[in-house]
Specification:
globular; single chain; alpha+beta; 5-stranded mixed β-sheet
Length: 366
């Protein structure tokens, strides 16, 4: 006679033997043989690394971003997602699978960045349309209490906390990290001052012509610029980055390479913001500026993009219009690929870096 029990503790089951079986196991007259059978399920392989686009896929994308009744914009983040991993773009923008938006009780890197942006907006919002001099910034750097108070308010707002709620240890650590980041930004601003604040968290958008090989139409591209300021007769399009950002690129077209490095995202985004802001009369000469906060140390000494075609040559980009034609050509090419039925969705080849923290990695069986 054979008795079988399930050791898997699912639902209301404990995964333990019944009392009857346990009693039999210790009965000196029965002396039953006990064996374990493992039934783990293993896959022999993953899913295909490439998915061909269909007409339905194209219609879904067009319904979202082609100019017309829809007011949704194709964002720099969406284009960066396509350039980093086409399959991730497919899950997010074709299947509509959004990343979880649960109420956060932990401070992750994304939330840290959101809070930093909120604090910088609060610091400079009284100066929109006005000049900021070095004296004000130095006084603010010295007033640690005011900065920490602003950080605390931003943390409470993002975490939806009440004044009576307890302060957790991770919030104290996050507040210290943000305070350190804010100090780095302000020290950089002190070195760049005086400058005039022309806009904060500025929404920009424009229509852009796309050709997918069979038809021509317009899509809407847009996003939000962290800060626009005027420095020495130049309009700076400023982006704060707490993540990894490349110090240089070999060429502007390197920003558009398929399955490229994620550390190019910040520069692509800032250059695209320059283009979107270009149709405004106050634009003038523009300089893409990225504050690489994590690498800043005691200050941000270089906010410009360095173009290094070889080891001996290093060209700082002071004027967006020096590379605009090249950037527009790359943008036209990549948007054409996104909406082309001949271009498949494809998984990234960089499993170690890009798949590790991807919300969709289980769908790719990676």
């Amino acid at each position: 006679m054979v008795f079988i029990y399930n050791s898997n503790p699912d639902g209301l089951r404990t995964g333990e033997m019944s009392r009857f079986l346990t009693q039999m196991m210790y009965d000196k007259d029965l002396k039953p043989d006990i064996s374990k059978v493992l039934t783990g399920i293993r896959t022999t392989g993953g899913i295909a690394g490439e998915l061909q686009k269909s007409a339905d896929h194209i219609n879904i994308l067009r319904s979202q971003f082609v100019s017309g009744d829809s007011k949704k914009s194709l964002s720099p983040s969406a284009i960066n997602m396509w350039l980093n991993c086409r399959m991730k773009f497919y899950y997010r923008y074709v299947c509509g699978l959004r990343e979880p938006e649960d109420l956060k009780i932990e401070i992750d890197a994304a939330l840290l960045g959101e809070i930093l942006h909120e604090v910088m907006f609060e610091i400079y919002s009284p100066f929109q349309g006005k000049a900021v001099d070095r004296g004000f910034i130095e006084a603010l750097i010295a007033d640690a209490g005011k900065i920490r108070q602003t950080i605390s308010a931003a943390l409470s707002k993002k975490l939806k906390k009440q004044e009576s709620d307890l302060v957790h240890g991770n919030e104290i650590i996050a507040a210290d990290v943000i305070f350190n980041y804010i100090q780095r930004i302000l020290r950089a601003d002190s070195a760049f001052a005086p400058f005039s604040v022309k806009g904060l968290e500025k929404a920009v958008a424009a229509e852009f012509a796309v050709s997918d090989g069979t038809s021509d139409y317009y899509i809407r591209i847009g996003g939000v610029i962290d800060r626009i300021d005027a420095l020495g007769g130049i309009t700076r399009i400023v982006d704060y980055k707490t993540g990894s950002v490349a110090n240089s690129v070999s060429s502007i077209m390197a920003l558009f390479e398929d399955d490229r490095k994620k550390e190019y995202d910040g520069w692509f985004q800032t250059l695209l913001y320059c283009e979107l802001f270009n149709n405004r009369p106050e634009a003038g000469k523009m300089r893409p500026s990225v504050y690489r906060i994590r690498k800043a140390g005691d200050g941000i000494s270089e906010d410009r993009l360095l173009i290094k075609p070889d080891r001996r040559t290093e060209i700082p980009l002071d004027n967006y219009f020096d590379v605009r034609n090249e950037f527009i050509n790359g943008l036209r090419e990549v948007t054409g690929l996104i909406f082309s039925e001949n271009e498949p969705f494809r998984m990234t080849g960089d499993r170690n870096q890009k798949c590790r923290f991807c919300y969709y990695r289980k769908l790719c069986m990676r």
